[in-house]
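**Sequence, structure tokens**
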Amino acid sequence: MCAQIENRIEIVPRDFKIGAQSIGSARWYMGGDPVRTSFFNALTITFPQGEHFFIDSVKPFRNDAPPALRSEIADFIKQEALHTREHVAFNKQVEDRGYDTTAQYALVERELGKFRKRSRFRQLGLTISLEHFTALFARELLENEEHLRGTPASVRQMWRWHALEEVEHKSVAFDTFLFATKHWSRPRRFLFRSIAMLEASYHFARIVWFNMSKFYDADGIESRGRLKRSLSHLFGKGGVLRALIKGWLSWFKPNFHPSQHEDSDLIDPVRIEFSNMAAK
């Protein structure tokens, strides 16, 4: 585990106030596409509570962790806290377009509340699973500009900033899990994280679809055919979730580790982009 930590990308918390920047007046700000806009809205609604949960799930293991991992956990917490702040600000802009997000926030709170009653290992299991999904999604956003096509510059900037930092800290929760379960056998650890991923994927899909449906309802989009339309958009040719399937399946390799997905060449230009932004 220590070798993996030494070879990993540096984690740099960037204190940018991006979420409150105007996203313009368009209701469907993702290139005028209601499906794409509803999907990204559905995600950003989950982030404030979700990232707070991620922080809380690694904290119990921080003090006992080796120095290198302890330092990474600290930077992970800083990045996630900044993401939470910015998505709260961004979500306010979404709500200002006439969307009532009360039910969506309530569902996320209920689902995470169920996990908060479980053991600290089960909570960490949810975090490592969702962090893997988030890292895959982040990589896809940075690699394929088409997903942010037609969006205001502020929206593109926020998602690219968030994606960069998710890629940077993609291994932290997983290495925390390896440290916390160092006395477990390999088969036990593999079975645990496999079940955790299946459970996390179910809850994630359920929450995102509920959130999207609420946005569709508010936009007056008829329920007939919208699931098919959404699945076609997300999993059809060029779909953002279709692009994640191979990476999602890689989780179920017994020797999986997030660092096996090499990202340095992809994120180096993005890091320069945000370094230049910070210098202005």
